[in-house]
Amino acid sequence: MKLLDIGELTARTGIPASTLRYYDEIGLISSVARHGLRRQFPPETLLQLKLISMGKSAGFSLDEISGMFAPDGQPDLPRPELHERADQLDRQIKELTALRDTLRHVADCPARTHMECPTFKRLVELAGRRAGKDGRKSLNKKERA
Amino acid sequence: MKLLDIGELTARTGIPASTLRYYDEIGLISSVARHGLRRQFPPETLLQLKLISMGKSAGFSLDEISGMFAPDGQPDLPRPELHERADQLDRQIKELTALRDTLRHVADCPARTHMECPTFKRLVELAGRRAGKDGRKSLNKKERA
DNA sequence: CTACAACTTCAAGTCAACTTGAGGTCAAGC
DNA sequence: GCTTGACCTCAAGTTGACTTGAAGTTGTAG
């Protein structure tokens, strides 16, 4: 199992070394050894970093992410909670889809003011259908605690 | 055109008054008058706030959002840029979909360690297919400027 | 007319997620 | 054996998005 040093990770992911050190510090990833002073990361770290980036882009905090995928890359949460998160993502995906369609419409609709365009309004309403009020809101750190 | 005061907005959106004042301050929404000291918002503000919430959940900064939908609720960006954003959202939607599927898989897969499960790996790889390296990264404020 | 709840301002504080900088260590190549 | 560059630590700084608190104002209900 060949180990990677921080520069290698940076080169392969584009994530700055300072960030990787920070992630290591907070236990989001973990080096398995040192070569001199230098952190040595196992190759799975690459996969973990991909998961982290996915989670971040889904709007999860680092804290939530480390709850989903424990430091060793293994998921930590009970099944029902994972399913709940997946459902949440589903809602978010719907919202993003509506936003995308809204953007496309806005780019193409020649109406003078969008606030008066029925298509526009419909799109936005459609988005709020289930996503607006709670969406991802409901399991912030505080509320989970 | 009946005007809404901040409490009304709070009641109808769940967004704290302090946040609405902050949004007003940075020009993301705008009150059209004062009743005494009190801000009076036009009813479109409700729609704007929905757009803002959608944008936030898509991971856009308030700054980017105000670039997309100007203070009066009208979009500001040139068409090509709006389309580019829509395409970006498309990529993000794909990523989120992969994350959702990953989560579902993780909740159900009985494998001892997920790092060894081929389905898991495939899902993650699939996610990184186009989203990982740049994703939404490429038009941060700095890079746009 | 008075009380009061709902607003107001302004400065300062908070939190997550990093970044920066100063100063130090060390393995590898010449 | 010495230089060099890639790493290290630790403290402090930054940014975005708010929140909090103190102190003041005002429209409306009684």
Question: Which descriptors would you attach to this protein?
Answer:
elongated, disordered C terminus, mainly alpha, Multidrug-efflux Transporter Regulator, Chain: A, Domain 2, 145 residues, homodimer, 2 domains, 57% helix, three-stranded antiparallel beta sheet, DNA-binding
Shape of chain A: elongated
Greatest interface and its participating residue counts: A-B, 49 and 48 residues
Helix content of chain A: 55-70%
Q: Which spans of chain A have pLDDT < 50 for at least 5 consecutive residues?
A: 130-145
Mean pLDDT of chain A: 81
Query: Could you spell the SSE succession of chain A in H and E letters?
Result: EHHEEHHHHH
Task: Write structural notes for this entry.
The structure is a homodimer of 145-residue chains. With 145 residues, chain A is mainly α. Chain A folds into two domains: 4-66, Multidrug-efflux Transporter Regulator, Chain: A, Domain 2; 79-144. Helices cover 57% and strands 6% of the residues of chain A. Chain A contains seven helices and three strands, in the order E-H-H-E-E-H-H-H-H-H. Chain A has helices spanning 6-13, 17-25, 44-57, 62-68, 79-108, 118-128, 141-144; strands at 4-5, 33-35, 38-41. In chain A, strand 2 and strand 3 form a beta hairpin. In chain A, helix 5 runs antiparallel to helix 6 (118-128). Chain A starts with a strand and ends with a helix. Mean pLDDT of chain A is 81; it is low at 130-145. At the A-B interface, helix 3, helix 5 and helix 6 of A face helix 3, helix 5 and helix 6 of B. The structure holds a DNA duplex (30 and 30 nucleotides).
